Amino acid sequence: MTALTGTRHLVRLILRRDRVLLPVWILLLAVLPASYASAYAELYPTAAERAAYLAGTASNPSIVALLGPVYGDSTGALTVQRAGLLALIAALVSVLTVVRHTRTEEEAGRRELLGATVLGRYAGLTAALLVTYAANVLLGLLAAGGLVAAGLPGAGSVLFGAGVALTGVAFATVGGLAAQLTEGAGGARGIGLGALGLAFVLRLAGDAGGSGGTGGDAEWLSWLSPLGWAARSRAYADERPWVLLLPVLFSAVVALVAYPVSVRRDLGAGVFPSRLGPAAAAAGLAGPFGLAWRLHRTQLLGWTVGFGLLGLVLGGAADAAGEAVRGNPQVAEILSRLGGSSALAEAYLGGTLSLTAPAAAGYGIQAALRARAEETAGRAEPLLATAVSRTRWLAAHLVFALLGPAVVLSVAGLATGLAYGLSVSDVGGELPRLLGAGLAQVPAAWVLSGLAALLVGWLPRFSAAAWAALAGCLLLGQLGAVLGLDQWALNVSPFTHTPQVLSGNWQVAPLAALTATAAALLIASVATFRTRDIPTP
Known about the structure:
Layout: H1 7-17, H2 21-43, H3 47-57, H4 61-67, H5 75-82, H6 85-100, H7 103-107, H8 110-115, H9 123-149, H10 154-181, H11 185-208, H12 220-223, H13 226-229, H14 245-264, H15 288-324, H16 329-339, H17 344-376, H18 380-384, H19 390-424, H20 427-439, H21 442-458, H22 465-483, H23 487-490, H24 508-529
């Protein structure tokens, strides 16, 4: 028996378990670059129009920090900048996928059962990495093919696809190392996402201080970030394929650390031992809500801080964005499609705030699915065998599925209002306005939280389909107008019904309807959860 014995069988097992999730996220991400390329080709058909757009955006450090640098004024170069966040999303999914199939399996006890069979000591980690690597390569190939089909040059398309794929590969390896460091899957995810957050901050600081990718005192920070390497391969410009050797070398170094650690630690243990808790529980843990607070508080804090920083960046860029596009009707049209209305700065703010709502819905889904995770890990059944009722136990988790989106969107609105108010010297006027705009996004996010809760209560085996619903809403929001879909198709997404508060379109009826829909879904989830078996495999 070798150290890799059984890897092929584990790969088949992972593919079977992720037979829905893997294709969904690969296909959804793969179609985005081609849609952006088609939109840019339609809105900016001439070099003069593209140059005007470039001059209005690349000169603003805040916009460059958010989207990344742009090299050249071709349709391909503009597409690469617009799709720069694709690498970030691929990295995020890669970390979560590897942790799910390594540390989560070990924490649930399934890794120990498999290890009792004929299974090599490197097989588990290798299988998770191979599947995730292959998914990223397929994503890169499909993205490159879509760009070629959109009429962009093949060399630049392949270079862009390779950059996205190798960024995902690099962070998949980071997830593999994070899974060896802690005893819990939550800790491993925290380390992996913390590394991703650090990489994003380095890229943001480097791009913001690097004069839009043309060089600057702070641009060296972007070279320290794996998220900055793909952009610096300069697809569709003066291409530098050698830059993509950096994520390859990075992955190799991280893997050389992860593999020895994976076999030197005890099964179920991590490099960092768990901290011993107090001898007696705190008074706040007396009851299901106290336990739910203990389980959710770290993630809620992380999401809140992240949304606050994002709001500061968006608000700081708003005034400059409005000034940049006043003489460019094509750019104004893009911003108007996102959230549009009268003032261009308000169109920018409305559009960017509307993009935070799906992200907040992601937190709500994650919080609702935590109840299912506690159930499958075997921790719910002992609690429900006591005087704790099913309704109280589930409701404790659902409070955070509702509270979390409201908190993070409120913080995003406040931070955006503060930054924008300071830039226009009207904090007192802009802060409440943008807080209201952030709160207007909450009911739509609640609908997806309710859907996830309903799946937990009614169809627990398919509860992960809530992520597919969120992905579908994102797809409708990003591509619906570009593809010319009928309004009834766009109305499937709850985010379509959110009123544009900044344009004066404050309508109570859509918000009330969304809130009522979310409430009905939550009530149905509790009713179905009370009548089904626990645990349900």
